[in-house]
């Protein structure tokens, strides 16, 4: 059993101050915005970005360590939700990424019976997150070249991973068929 569980937070109520402190007190080097001011965090929270029809957010609660970060579920009105996972700096690199992502995946497939696949994306240079995806049984499905804007530098690739409900149920991974149909007769190159 995972030692990380999700505890739904109340972003505009009881948890508002703690969420503002978390978002503005940490650095997120692989997000479009590396740092967030307390004012911007509060504004975004109050606009509903952490809980509305499309979003829901939980603390990631570790049995021994307490809250280690947050996960925000996104696109909840679409058939395929996405997520944003943020572990606090002092807890990064300690092997908590995989149990955290497994807990998030369990939560989605257990509490959302109509969801048959779940997706996530990260920057190509976010090595830890890419390891976490693979170790947690997710499968790389796309590599969007130059798709992730970086302030003051060239864009980097965005790498997309997905997990199927049936893979989650069986513990197997269904591979992506990468080869284009050989029968199309298309030639490679110009
Ligand atoms: C990305 C993140 C969730 C990974 O979780 P983590 O607890 O730090 O990672 P772990 O300690 O579980 O390590 C997972 C793997 O990545 C490797 N790793 C950890 N930190 C690394 C680093 N800085 N560089 C390269 N590899 C790293 C570990 O060795 C491990 O690999 P292994 O399974 O082969 O041993 C966490 O670092 C985080 O929240 N970062 C900031 C926010 C973010 O980038 N979120 C992703 C948005 S989707």
Commentary on this structure:
This protein has helices at residues 16-25, 38-46, 97-111, 127-135, 165-170; strands spanning 4-8, 56-62, 66-74, 82-87, 117-123, 139-150, 153-164. The chain is an alpha+beta fold and 190 residues long. Helix 1 packs across helix 2. The N and C termini lie far apart (52 Å). The mean pLDDT is 95. The chain binds coenzyme A. Coenzyme A is lined by residues 28, 30, 69, 84-87, 92-98, 120, 122, 126-129, 131-132, 135.
Short recap of the structure:
With 190 residues, this protein is an alpha+beta fold. It contains 5 helices and 7 strands, in the order βααβββαβαββα.
How are the elements arranged and paired?
Elements: E1 4-8, H1 16-25, H2 38-46, E2 56-62, E3 66-74, E4 82-87, H3 97-111, E5 117-123, H4 127-135, E6 139-150, E7 153-164, H5 165-170
Antiparallel strand pairs: 1-2, 2-3, 3-4, 5-7, 6-7
Helix pairs in contact: 1-2
Bound molecules: coenzyme A.
Coenzyme A is lined by residues 28, 30, 69, 84-87, 92-98, 120, 122, 126-129, 131-132, 135.
Q: From the alpha carbons, calculate the radius of gyration and give it in angstroms.
A: 18 Å
Specify the number of helices. 5
The total count of strands amounts to 7
In round numbers, the mean pLDDT is: 95
Structural class: alpha+beta
Distance between the termini: 52 Å
Uncertain regions spanning at least 5 consecutive residues? none
Beta fraction: 25-35%
User: How do the SSEs run, as a string of H and E?
Assistant: EHHEEEHEHEEH
| Envelope shape | globular
Strand order of the largest sheet: 1-2-3-4
Helix % is 25-40%
């Amino acid at each position: 059993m995972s030692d990380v569980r999700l505890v739904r937070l109340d972003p505009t109520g009881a948890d508002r101050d703690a969420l503002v402190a978390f978002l503005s007190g940490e650095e997120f080097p692989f997000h479009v915005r590396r740092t967030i001011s307390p004012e911007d965090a509060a504004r975004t929270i109050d606009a509903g970005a952490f809980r509305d029809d499309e979003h829901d957010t939980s603390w990631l609660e570790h049995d021994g360590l307490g809250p280690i970060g947050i996960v925000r579920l996104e696109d909840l009105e679409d058939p395929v939700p996405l997520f944003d996972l943020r572990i606090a700096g002092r807890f990064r690199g300690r092997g908590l990424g995989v149990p955290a992502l497994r807990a998030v995946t369990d939560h989605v497939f257990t509490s959302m019976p109509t969801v048959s696949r779940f997706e996530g994306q990260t920057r190509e240079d976010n090595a830890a997150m890419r390891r976490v995806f693979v170790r947690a049984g997710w499968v790389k499905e796309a590599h969007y070249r130059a798709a992730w804007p970086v302030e003051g530098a060239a864009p980097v690739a965005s790498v997309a991973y997905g997990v199927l409900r049936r893979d989650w149920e069986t513990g197997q991974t269904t591979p992506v068929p990468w080869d284009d149909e050989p029968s199309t007769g298309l030639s490679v190159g110009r």
